[in-house]
Amino acid sequence: MISVTAALAVVVAAAVAFSVLVLDREPRPADVASASSSSLLVVTWGPSLCKVEPSNSGCRSGHVGSLGETFILHGLWPQPSTEQYCDVPKRTPDRSRTPVSLPPALQTDLKAIMSDSAIMTTHEWYAHGTCSGVAPPDYFGIAATLADQAGTVLDPIFEQAAGQQVSSRAVRRAFDARFGAGAGKRVGLTCRNASGAGSIMYEVQISLPPVVDLHRDAPTLGDALAKGPTVPPGCGQARVP
């Protein structure tokens, strides 16, 4: 006869297994692809991240600083913003979720372009990737490739403006010059307040088609921008740390 304690242990084990195998499962693309109308590629100016969030693990470890003055990948977010945590529980702590399995080469690429890829890949996949309609390697591969292309435009602007003001108009013009008229209308800037530094330029959000379409078409950033919806310019002007 099974004791009450043993029976409870069986129930708990079954609940944990259900959470891992069912709740944190990889979504079926057909279930989520049609819900997303577009996506946002979000990149953060590394020096700004460590000004605004000095407790960030990538800032505390010195990893973000070692990357130099450059933009780092925050994420690729299906839109509208309600497209989050598809088919997985929202309130589960990231540390309790099943780690995302990615090819070694992609892990290396992400480490070089994220603040703390070990932490960020888990969070970004469950919060946003589960709504993308593609598998984790495709999702992060697309994000890394497009973020790298965006950096070739953004990094020079912010490097030259370090310690000075930069405007959303200047950034949008740079995208028009590189990718054609109208590309800049798909770019918005975010400013944040940093202790002792006031308002600083923080992130750039780039409007693109749904992630599943990026996967299907394998476009360059220029091709993707042409198919993304226009977005507001965001904050008009702020200092670059």
3D structure, described in words:
This protein is an alpha+beta fold. It has a single domain (4-239), classed as Ribonuclease Rh, Chain A, CATH 3.90.730. Helices cover 45% and strands 17% of the residues. It is built from 11 helices and 6 strands. It has helices spanning 4-23, 29-32, 46-52, 57-60, 63-66, 104-111, 117-127, 136-160, 168-179, 211-217, 221-227, and strands at 38-45, 71-79, 165-167, 187-194, 198-208, 237-239. It has a 4-stranded antiparallel sheet, sandwiched between helices. It has a two-stranded antiparallel sheet with strand order 3-6. The radius of gyration is 20 Å and the shape is globular. The relative contact order is 0.17. Residues 1-23 and 27-34 have low confidence and may be disordered.
CATH class: Alpha Beta
Instruction: Based on Cα principal axes, name the global outline.
Output: globular
Q: Mind telling me which CATH architecture this is?
A: Alpha-Beta Complex
Number of beta-strand segments: 6
Based on CA atoms alone, the radius of gyration comes out at 20 Å
| Number of helices, counting only DSSP H or I runs of 4 residues or more | 11
- The averaged pLDDT comes out at 88
CATH topology: Ribonuclease Rh, Chain A
Number of domains: 1
Strand order of the largest sheet: 2-1-5-4
Instruction: Report the helical percentage.
Output: 40-55%
SSE string: HHEHHHEHHHEHEEHHE
Structural class: alpha+beta
Which stretches of 5+ consecutive residues score pLDDT under 50?
Answer: 1-23, 27-34
CATH homology superfamily: Ribonuclease T2-like
Oligomeric state, counting identical vs distinct chains: single chain
Termini gap? 68 Å
Largest sheet: 4 strands, antiparallel
| Beta-strand residue fraction | 15-25%
